[in-house]
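Justification of resources, computational component.

The compute hours requested in this renewal are based largely on the per-chain cost of generating structure records like the one below. Each record pairs the submitted sequence with a full structure-token output. That output is archived, and it is also reused by downstream analysis tasks.
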Amino acid sequence: MPPSRRAMLTAALASATVGATGCGGQVNRRMPASVRGLDFERLAHGFAPMAAGAAPGLLNLGVMTFDTLAVWCADQNRRFPLGGLVKAPVAAAALAEVDAGRLKLNDMITIRAVDLSPRPGRVNRAFPLRGEDELRLPAADLIALTVQEGDNTAADVIMSHIGGPGAVTAWLRQHDIKDMRVDRYQREVQTNMFGMASFRAAWKDEAAWAAARASVPPAVREAAMAEFLADPRDTTTAEATLDFLNLLSGGDLLSRASASLLLRLMSTATGPAPLRAGLPAHAALAHQSGYSDTDLGLTPVTNDMGVVSLPGGRRFAIATFLAGSTATAAQRDTQIAQAAHLAVSALR
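The structure output for this chain reads:
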């Protein structure tokens, strides 16, 4: 039986010299300028002006080649808010329950008004607010909506069904993904981010949500966003994110059928895909992005992570994070696309 990607990565790290995997992002005399797979010097020197240009926002980039398991992170240990990236591990944990026989894709799951979460999505639009009305959807649809459309209600409902945030984090730990943590439902994350009261079903529409957020005094919202950016809950590191993508792609997280389904859903995600603009023509991208609302000129979260398949068959994982940015949406997308372009240019 061939070794698992987890075993291969562990062996590569154990046999490497200090800094040889490149996580840490600094080129020094103990680290070669390049290893088989990645040009560390090009990454470090190319990323430095990008990070400076993103200020006062914090920009991070991580890259891992699948054929050589070379790894480079601009900042290995800094925690960034997961934002919408959480949808992929939530869906993966749900599919692990399918693999274990504890959940069936055709299981019907009931959604009540109390289960709704912020921002418009297909579930919120379909939900009737008339007394005790409910909506029932199969688990397969909730998983698909979570990944493909970033639907917060779908993500919260399927996560609740498999045991909540703690169950997702425990599943990640079972696979030795140590620095990715899921602590809250999106209905909590989104309201905490802006200093709002607990989410209520009456806010399920875009206009109602925006009005509720605007009713919070600006000073309270500003302090809440600052607290959110410093909060260790619902965060990840570049290294943990690359590890998740590597294990998912290599078949060490899920059955072949479940891994294939999740990667297919990520390949057809309908949300923003700023990474794509930095990739060569005809490259395939299976990704999960996460954008928070912009408020008072600040965007707490702009993330994108994915598995890239280049023409010719080479594959690698990439993770990008931009926290606390004051740039416009177009500028933020450009910064992430430039990071993706740099990653491709550093492949060896």
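The first strand starts at residue 34 and ends at 35. The chain has two domains: 5-83+229-345, 86-221.
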